[in-house]
Amino acid sequence: MTAEDTLADSGLHFDDLNKLRVLEPENAQQTGELKEECQEFVGKIAEFQKMVGSFISITNDLAQEVEKEKMKAIGSRNMLRSIAKQRESEQKQLQALIAEKKNQLERLRVQQQALEKQEVEQNEFIDQFSTT
Amino acid sequence: MRLKLNVPKAKGHSDVATCVIWSSADSVLSCGDDHTILKWDLLTGESSLACKLGSDVYPTHVSQVPGQSKGGRNSSNLFAVTSSDGKFHFFSDGGRVEKSVEAHTGAVLCGKWSYDGSAYITAGEDGQIKIWSRSGMLRSTLSQLSCCIYSVAWSPESDQVLYTYGKELVIKPLQPSGKLVKWKAHDGIVLNTDWNPVNNLILSGGEDCKYKIWDSYGRLLFSSTAQDYPITSIAWSPSGELFAVGSFNSIRLCDKAGWCHSLEKSSTGSMANIAWSNDSTQVATACSDGNVMFAHCVEKHLEWCEYEVTLVSRKSVEVHNVVNDAHEALELKDRVIKLSLAFNYLIVITSSQCHIYSTDNFNTPSIFELRQGNVSFIMQAEKHFLLADSSGIHVYSYDGRHLCNPKIPSSSNTLVLNSRTLALSPDVLAVKDNKDDCAVLLFDALSGKPLGDGRPVVHKLEIIEVHLSQCGSLSDRFLTLVDKNHDVYLASVQKQGGNYSLAKLTSMVQSLSWNTTVNMLCGLSDSNLTIWFYPPALFVDQSILPSTQFQREYPELGKYAEISFYHENTVSVYREDGSLISLAVTPYPAVLHRLVSAGKWHEAVRLCRFAKDGALWGSLAAMSLKDRDLNTAEIAYAAIEEADKVECINEIKNIGSKEVKGAEMALFCGNSLEPEASLLHSGMIYRAIQLNIDLFRWERALDLAVKHKTHVDTVLWFRQIHLQRLHRSETNSKFKKYSQGVNLNWENIQAKIDHDLAA
Questions:
Q1: What is the DSSP annotation of B119-156?
Q2: Higher pLDDT, B212 or B540
Q3: In chain B, N or C terminus with fewer CB closer than 10 Å?
């Protein structure tokens, strides 16, 4: 058994530069690589997150816009409907007013008729004098 | 006429406004579901918080103690508010709660003060109706019913209560023994009722979208067509001439006959409550959007001869002369309350002054300050006019001079006066007695003193209308009464034999009016127009009365027409639907009246011959008989083919003695007591006895004979003959007594008679 093996048993290694190491040089190297790769991965993920974030915010904005438009559409649709109703009630009101005016007109017509009749009678009365 | 709406800019209630009331002529109190009572000033249009109610108090109805506001302004008023928590609250004018009383389980829906202000009635969801004293103590529970009572109203005398009961209306007297009147009023639930103290009519509005008018017996007088929305509120104007109907987004102004003056639309939601101002010119409404809306009546239109007067706006009046097309615009300082146009004078009452315009000159009116702001009506006569307010009546001349203030005794502290129970003529004023419904008081119109000995004209039935003839002297002044049965009675305002003699003229008349220029009377029953050319004929020769009248059916008048006025030769009639119909009547009777009053009998006869009208001859007969012009009477009676009367008149004409002639005339006129008295007075005993014998008043004849110790045998002789003719024997003990031992000799009797007649 060499000294190296003895050292390896106790978890100590020498690297190429004869420095004492607690990890096997290969492992240490791979670990180093892994770390670098991880860092790279984290960087990429962060970038991705940023991109997704902006995407989400854009979508949100869009959703809000859509919601707003939707409400607007519903509102105007309701308004349209209520205008129809409003018109209907206005029409009803106007019709009621017209009916009232018609009544009034009828009253005045009757009054005029009576007056005309009276005029005729009075004229007849006057004629009675002019003929006799 | 129409309502001019005005929604004030000032903020209203933040929740539904539920009720309003006029606290004075220019201020209104309104309650709302936002638990506040607001006070509105109409002059500025501002609202201010009068009172904040508890957060659990939802006001439902407000009512003010009547008869307090003397003078109208700044008086301390007590009002009561009912609320949905089953209580009512008494408030002083300052808005302080004087008292809160737990009244009902569930909401109190309506609460009203009686007209004398002594009792307060509440009705609630629990179906109970309770009456409370002025201090808020429970007096009695009037009814306990199974459904909620939406509305109650007092009768004019405050002795009965009207309430809604589902689809029915019920009138219940306060006296437990009184009879209940109950009728189905609407097809839907009745939401609102009102009972006017002046015209005694009942209004109701229901969920069936109709409003109806009833009389106090529950008879239907008018029913509207179905409106678009249920009737949420209804209210009589205090004068009883108009009423307002509130519904969703609309308010209607209607005449008391039911026809609609105008319809106004607003966008304030349903009108929860309507209140009229005391002068009947303004309306306040509580709207469901929290606003309080105000309205006043404009475009009131009057006509007289060639003049047309229109109230253009609150403070301006326009006069139009139709003949020369002249327009006059009259501007006034204050709000116009009442207008009246008659006898060539226009009277404009504003809130503080009275303006009298002569139609000859509209530039210089006579103006005087009113003693009291609240004039309820104007009545005009030829030389003077009358203003009635809550304190009584005042007569003024047309130059604005105060003539008198007749003292009218009133039964309670409220004085119910209206143009139907009051009549003014150039010299006499007649007023229905407030204490006794069957009596009419007469006053001298110029001095205000009671006429004669001040005793009233008493009729046996309740009087509903009083009219006076308008022309001639005091001896031509006749009073016409219309009683509860719509029978017309006529009486001279001068007593005859210490009593007013009431005589029935006709029956079943729905409207009556005297002519303004000649003493003629016209009456309307259904669509039949009757004109009495000479109503006093009733006292002259009752049998001739039917031939002094003109009768004609006018189918176009319909059923419930009402005479507006009868001026010169035109009768103006308001039809049921509100159209004014003028009817021409013959001008001859007016001419005849004028000729007769000038004593021109010849011309009168010639006029009748020319007109060839039976009624005219009849009138002339009665007139000539009244004035004892026998020649004319003979001609007139002959013309209407009353041969017996011509004969009789001929006989009377041949009588030499003045007294006997007078007595015979009186007898001819159907008066049997007066001639006897006058004959006895002038010592003609035999004639008096003979008069009684002729009238088959045997006992009286015998009494007279015995009393004057003459002609006992004559009476017995005639009695004997009378009995023989009838084949009867004597049953009268008096005659038996006197006939004992008397030897009847016709020759003796004959001689005595001849002797007396010659004397």
A1: EEEEEETTSEEEEEETTS-EEEEEEE-SS----EEE-T
A2: B212
A3: C
User: Considering only residues 377 to 416 of chain B, which have any Cβ-Cβ distance to chain A shorter than 8 Å?
Assistant: none
pTM above 0.90, yes or no: no
- Residue with token string 């629990």: B126
**Residue B667: pLDDT above 60?**
yes
Torsion of CA B607, B612, B618, B619, to 10 degrees: -40
Residue A132 is predicted with a pLDDT of 61
A122: closest chain B residue by CA? B584
Question: Most A CBs within 10 Å: which of B263, B322, B557, B567, as the mutation test of the A interface?
Answer: B263
Please indicate whether, in this complex, the C-beta atoms of A114 and B263 are within 8 angstroms of each other. Answer: no
**Total Cβ atoms within 10 A of residue B508:** 12
Q: What is the ipTM of this complex?
A: 0.80
Contact between B265 and A96 using a beta-carbon 8 Å cutoff: yes
Q: What is the pLDDT of residue B67?
A: 64
Contact flag A111-B582 (C-beta cutoff 8 Å): yes
CB contacts under 8 A, B 217-236 vs A, are 227-228
Chain A within 8 Å of B262 (Cβ-Cβ)?
yes
> Residue B70 — pLDDT band, cuts 50, 70, 90?
very low
Rounded distance between C-alpha atoms, residue B437 and residue B421, angstroms: 10
**pLDDT band, residue B330 (cuts 50/70/90):** very high
Residue A39 confidence (pLDDT): 96
The structure tokens 């105007």 sit at A76
Q: Residue B102 corresponds to which tokens in the numbers above?
A: 């737990």
What contacts 24+ positions apart, CB below 8 Å, involve B32-38? B32/B59, B32/B286, B32/B290, B33/B58, B33/B59, B34/B290, B37/B81, B37/B91, B37/B95, B38/B12, B38/B13, B38/B292
- Cβ-contact B441, B408 below 8 angstroms: yes
B69 pLDDT more than 70: no
Q: Which residues of A touch B263 (CB under 8 A)?
A: 96-97, 100
What is the percent of chain A where pLDDT is above 90? 51
Q: Does position B75 have pLDDT exceeding 80, yes or no?
A: no
> Which DSSP category does B450 fall into?
B
A91 touches chain B (CB under 8 A): no
Q: Which tokens is B125 given?
A: 């969801």
For the cut 60, the answer to whether the pLDDT of residue A94 exceeds it is yes
**Interface check A103 vs B, CB under 8 A:** yes
Q: Which residue of B has its CA nearest to A121?
A: B584
Q: Which two tokens stand for residue B210?
A: 């109709």
Which domains can be identified in chain B, with CATH numbers? 2-298 (2.130.10.10), 300-366 (2.40.10), 371-508 (2.130.10.10), 655-758 (no CATH)
**Boundaries of every domain in chain A:** 3-131
Task: Round the average pLDDT of chain B to a whole number and report it.
Answer: 87
Q: For residues B263 and B250, give the distance between their C-alpha atoms in angstroms, rounded to a whole number.
A: 7
In a mutational test of the B interface, the residue from A85, A91, A97, A109 whose CB has the highest number of chain B CBs within 10 Å is A97
| Contact A100/B at CB under 8 A | yes
pLDDT at residue B688, as a whole number:
83
Q: Do B263 and A107 touch (CB under 8 A)?
A: no
pLDDT at B393 over 80: yes
The H or E element spanning position B700 is: helix B698-708
Rounded-to-10 torsion of CA B411, B416, B419, B423 = 20
Residue B557 pLDDT greater than 90, yes or no: no
For B197, half-sphere exposure in the C-beta direction (CA atoms, 13 angstrom radius) is: 17
Query: Is any Cβ of chain B less than 8 angstroms from the Cβ of A101?
Result: no
Closest residue to B260, CB basis, from A103, A115, A118? A103
Q: Residue B73: what pLDDT?
A: 42
Of B332, B337, B330, which is closest to residue B358 (Cα–Cα)?
B330
Chain B contact set for A98 (CB, 8 A): none
